[in-house]
Structures are given as C-alpha cells and as structure tokens.
Amino acid sequence: MFRFGHRAVLALLLFALVPNIPRVRAQENYSRIEIGGQFSANGFLNSSGGVGFWEGFGGRFDYNVSRRLAFETQVDYFPQFVPTRLLEQGGQTLHFAAGLRGKVAQSRRFSLYGLIRPGFFHFTDAELLMGPPGSPGAKIGPATYYALNLGGGIEFYPSSRWVARFELTGNPYLVPNARPGSVPSPGSPPVPTPGVIDDRYQLSVGLGYRLGELRENGREESIPGRLEVGAQFTTLILRRRTTLDAIRMEPGFGGFVSYPLMRFLYADASVEFYPRGSKSVGFQDGGRIVQGLFGFKAGISRKRISIFAKARPGLIDATQTVNGFAPTTGSPLTGGFQTFALDLGGIVEIYATKRAFVRLDVGDTHLYFPDKFVTMTNGTATRIPGGSYQHSMQYSAGYGWRF
Predict the structure, then answer these.
(1) For an engineered disulfide with 58, which of 2, 76, 92, 244 has Cβ 3.0 to 4.6 Å away?
(2) How far apart are CA 87 and CA 246, in angstroms?
(3) What is the mean pLDDT of the chain?
C-alpha cells in the first residue's frame, strides 16, 4: 500500500542538494540525450475494490529532437504485491511507456509539458480464465496488457544540466475479451467474457541529467493562418454495453476544426461516424455510433511541429437502443440514445507546408452512461441504471489546412 511520502521527500531533497550550480542560463540550452530516475506511486485496486497507491521506482531515457519535442522511454517497477483480481491485476507490476514529450510552455527556470506514450502493464500474478467454452477454470499467472500513458508535468531547471520533474499521468490499459464462457444454445453465437479498459493514475517525482554537448535553443517561428479544418480516420476502442458485444475496435471517419482564442489556447471540435453496427441491441447501446466533441486544446504552434493537451466534452449517440416495448406484441421499440463523453489526451500536428499539416490525435474518452426510462407494455416507465463511467481509447489520423 501507499508509503510514497518518504520517497517523495527523499527525491525533493536530491533536488535541493544539487549544490552551488549557476542558475542564470538554465533553459537557454538543451542536449540531445537526457537520462533520469524517479520514484512513483500508482493507483491499483486494493482488496476491498477501492483505489490504493503502491510505490515503485524506475528510470527514463530521452532523445531531444528539439527544445520542445522529445522521444521518451520510461520504465517503472512496483515490487509490492497488488491484490489479485480476475484478469485485471495481481502480484508485482512492471510499467513500460515510450512515446512523445512536448513542452507547451517554458521559461528559463520552468516548463510545462505533455505526454503521449504507448506501452504496457505486466502483472506477475493475475487471475486468468482457462478451459474450454462452457466450463471456464481459473489459474494465477503473468499477464501483459497494452497501456496508453497520457498526462503531463512540470520541469524545474536548477542548472543547464540538471532537470527536476513532477509528473501526473493516467494509464488506461486494455484487458481484452476472454474466451467464451458459455454457449446459450446450439448454433447461437458464443457470449464472450467481456474485457475492460481500466485506468490507473500515477504520480512521479524524479531527477534527470543532460548528457553530451549542450545546444543553444533556436529561434522559433510562428506558422501563418488561424482557422484549421481537416478530415480524419479514427478508431475507437471501447466496451459496448450489449449482450453479444464486448471490447471492440470501431473504425470511423470524420472531420475537425480549430480556432485560436489566445496564444496558448484553441477552440477545437470534431465529429466522427462509426458505421459498423453492433451484434445486438441494449438499453443504452446498440447500432452505429455518432460522436461529437467540442472543447479546447492548449499548446504552441510552431513552424515544423506542435503538440497540444486537449479536453473536449461532447456526446456519443448510439443509433439503435431499446426505448420501450409495444403494448400488444411486446416487441422492442428502438431509437437513439445519447451518452455524455469527455475526451482527454493529446494532439500532435506535423506541418508538411506552411498551410498543410498531418494531425495525430490520441485520447482517453470517458463515457458517462445516464439512467434511462423505458416504457413497458402496460405503459409504465422502468428506470434502467446507467452505472459508473467507463474508459475508452481513441486514435485519429488526419490531414488539415490552415487559412
């Protein structure tokens, strides 16, 4: 369980003990290679199903492409055993992440950065489903799941070589569907044991050092234009709330638009359509999916590449859900149903020309299913509980223009 306090104090003392180093030109230079170590705490589930924090430690390696953009790899090891839960977690934990780190704002002493780093969680003692369909068994064994590390932090520069970091990230990870546990009747589709997308928040505090030749920060040039529009292809990975569907990858397409409100802040919106229908119909999910998001992205646009953090609320519409039952026949009456969504993550834009760019969009889309009232055959309304929110992973790649 959580004993992170004394490790955090130790790390902060290390920052203070970088002695008598000149502090004037701390962030006027950078190096290509940077290494570091950190203490971390991760929010796994405890034996009662609540969230507890387990401490760990690890290291990182950075290759700085420019003063703002870096390819970063981080490994954290959590030696204490977390409680074993069916498929989700158990035992000692290894977390690996590798991707992009981008500074959205910086000064000589501080910078604010965002992270988009795919990776994985490895658990040594998860409870796994085994056995043939209809008679699942269980055993304890290792499990590795794809994870998406999203978040950001603050860097402090006591000198041109040393870097102190405080970081908070979310780690949605995908537990895939297990093999079918039963077959309802001969010839009917097997019902999968549904997977889940969990999220584990991680707090890290660490210290880094820049190796090799120090390079002077180059002058940045702003790109022309204000309004951004474009088209994109997208994939939404989510657990559908229908009988015959579980974790699915929904391919789709749509468009986006952005407009600057101030130097660091942009209004950003997107609309996507996912044409593949569901295998069955439920009360809060079914059919095709239409998604609309409108919110903000925060970052700085520069000549070659830009990176943004995003927060975009919106709605997801399932086009075919059970709204009630016919009075005489009892057959289901279907229609659309809307669910509130909150998309959190990052956006990277790579500029091919002064006016055209490639846009990469990665996020954890939180889905909040509300209660629903369904009309029964006798005319009364029955409340269907919405339940707690669930996570999904969304990836988009598009092409846009600036005007």
Answers:
(1) 76
(2) 15
(3) 85
